[in-house]
Structures are given as structure tokens and as C-alpha cells.
Amino acid sequence: MRSFLPLVLLLTLPLAGGAAEIPAEKETIYFEHSKLGTVTFKHKMHSELDGVDCRFCHHTNQGTGKPEPCHRCHKGKPQDETPKKIKAFHTRCRGCHQYTVDAGKQAGPVKKCTLCHVKAGKTSGKPQQ
After folding, report:
1. What is the pTM of this model?
2. CA 32, CA 54: separation in Å to the nearest integer?
3. Which of 4, 42, 43, 59 has its CA 20 to 30 A from that of 67?
4. From 3.40.50.2300, 3.90.10.10, 3.40.50.1000, 3.30.70.2740, which CATH number describes the 4-127 domain?
5. Among 31, 69, 27, which residue's Cα sits nearest to residue 47?
């Protein structure tokens, strides 16, 4: 069942409208993780991909008003039925990447943690030269 969730979510993307304008300060978002390193999310780049709809990640926003940041609902600890942020991010991010790879297209990482989580002094999981 769990493997079908990303597929179901992604199949609904073409039904949604076009990408919204990304504010300059949100074009790249940095998610800090104290142990594994910072995840750099290229928000603008992802919003411009074919078939991507803002509501895939901003799933509580129905196109009205400014979307809330993920951590507003997804905390470090689970609350009610809302998954904690690490589970939410991994389900959305890796699920979308895996779906894209399975469709024969190039996508972001799905298995190697250090390709997303980069510690200070490193780039894309490799030491800076």
C-alpha cells in the first residue's frame, strides 16, 4: 500500500493548474539537519518542471492565499494524524524522485542520503576541491 501512495499523488498532478510565481527569497530553500547536513531544495526549479503542481507539496493550500511553510504542520514529533517532517519530506521527495526514475526520466536522488543531506564543507555529497 505504501508504495502506491506516491504514484496516486503523482497521477493527480496533471489535473491541477500551472505553477505559481515563486518569491525571490523562496527560490532556494535550505532545510537544516544537525546530524546529516543541510538539504538544499531548488524550489523554483521544481515548480517549473512539467507536470508539477504546487499542491503536491503545499497540499493543504487550495490555491487561495500564501502557502504555509511545511514545518507549520509537520513538526519534529508527530501530532494527531500529521506525520513528522522527516517522514513527510522523505515520502514526498523520494516518492516523486522514484516515480520519475521508474517512468524512465532523470530525477533527484532516491537512496543515497548524502546526495541531498550535505554537511558543511561538502558539495553534492562530495568534498569541495
Report:
1. 0.69
2. 22
3. 4
4. 3.90.10.10
5. 27
